[in-house]
Amino acid sequence: MRVGVFGHTEYDGLPDIVAMIVREAPRLKLEVFVESDLLAMAPGASAVSAPGDLDAIISLGGDGTLLRCARFLDGADVPILGVNLGKLGYLASSSVREFPRMLPKLAKGNFSSDVRMALEATTGPIGGPQSPRMRAVNDVVVHKGGFARVLRLRLSVNGEALGVLAADGIVISTPTGTTAYSMSAGGPIVEPGVQSLTITPIAAHTLAIRPLVLNPASVVTLQPEDAPDEVLVTVDGQVGATLSGGHAVTVRRAEHPVRIVRFHGTSFIGRVRRKLGWGGLADRDA
Predict the structure, then answer these.
(1) What is the rounded CA–CA span in Å between residue 65 and residue 89?
(2) Taking a C-beta distance cutoff of 8 angstroms, is the pair 68, 82 a contact?
(3) Of the residues 12, 16, 55, 63, which is catalytic?
(4) Which domains does the chain have, with CATH numbers?
(5) Mean pLDDT for the chain?
(6) Position with higher pLDDT, 266 vs 272
(7) In 3D, which of 208, 136, 147, 212 has the Cα closest to residue 176?
(8) Is 22 helix (H, G, I), strand (E, B) or coil?
(9) Do 44 and 33 contact (CB within 8 A), yes or no?
(10) Which of 253-281 are b and which e, b meaning 16 or more Cβ less than 10 Å from the residue's Cβ?
(11) Helix 14-28 vs helix 99-108: crossing angle, to nearest 10
(12) 63 catalytic per annotation
């Protein structure tokens, strides 16, 4: 098995985990490739070059690291095993404590995959040339920059005008992303197997504006109205663009989903209970 290893270098213990993977690789018949920032921690390993070179990815860090792995794959059908080195790690498949037991399972193929819907977003004038697509596993957020004022955002679904929403911004999320920014803004939690797009306003200016769950085939367009220059589009909290006057962002389901490794005994309900602390204190490293 050809395994790519990605990691967030600011997490304590990362060199030890990378060294363990490299040490165990011959026994487990793994060929290890690492991103360039980790080469010094992985003597003998090669640098990751392209998604097509890999059979699986190990993400060492938090949810942000896993989202970065998904962006690197850009639709390639490669499962991602997330190892939580951070606080919440909602998308993670394993804690640091569990990982030595999970690595052999990965090598032997003893896992299943959660198939997660992804989004793609483009910006540009309506009916005109569009920017290169930006891929999201969690969400696409349209929000204000440095001005402390309400945005007016013209919202259309499948080309039909829904209305002008007054808010600090809007989150368009996948089911996976409903436990991220959308949840913090008051949106519903949607089970990942339920294909949908969720639109959640951020600090809406009127109580009539509520979260909206749409068919996954829906195409959502947002255009700022009378907005300051700093109207931003942020994708998975990591990359994005600026909307200039007369431009809009269009969001639709991506053609290729993302696969996240899951091991026997884990479930969506179990993660909600543990990670969000329902019924007691959160066990965020489980």
Answers:
(1) 10
(2) no
(3) 63
(4) 2-116+258-275 (3.40.50.10330), 119-253 (2.60.200.30)
(5) 90
(6) 272
(7) 136
(8) helix
(9) no
(10) bbeebbbbbbbeebeeeebebbbeeeeee
(11) 40
(12) yes
SS3 content of the chain, % helix, strand, coil (to 5): 20, 35, 45
What DSSP line would sit under 226-269, residue for residue?
Answer: S--S-EEEEETTTEEEEEPTTEEEEEEE-SS-EEEEE-TT--HH
Cβ atoms of residues 39 and 19 within 8 Å: no
Cα separation, 123 vs 4, in Å, equals 31
What's the rounded Cα separation, in Å, for the pair 39 and 6? 10
Percent of the chain's residues with pLDDT above 90 = 70
pLDDT in tens, 111-126: 999 999 999 999 998 8
CA distance 6 to 14: 10
* pLDDT at residue number 194: 92
Over the Cα atoms of the chain, what is R_g? 20
Nearest of 106, 69, 62 to residue 84 by alpha carbon: 62
Q: Which two tokens stand for residue 178?
A: 């409903």
The amino acid present at 26, given as its one-letter code, is P
Q: What is the pLDDT of residues 196-249, one digit of tens each?
A: 999 999 999 888 889 999 999 999 999 998 765 678 999 999 888 888 778 999
- Indicate the burial class of 191 (C-beta count within 10 angstroms; 0-12, 13-18, 19 or more): exposed
pLDDT in tens, 4-49: 999 999 888 899 999 999 999 999 999 999 999 999 999 889 999 8
Q: What is the pLDDT of residues 145-171, one digit of tens each?
A: 766 678 899 999 999 999 999 999 999
Report the 10 Å Cβ neighbour count for 101.
10
Query: Which runs of E-coded beta strand occur in the chain?
Result: 2-7, 31-34, 46-47, 56-61, 80-84, 94-95, 112-116, 119-125, 134-136, 139-144, 151-157, 160-167, 169-173, 197-202, 212-214, 220-225, 231-235, 239-243, 247-253, 258-262
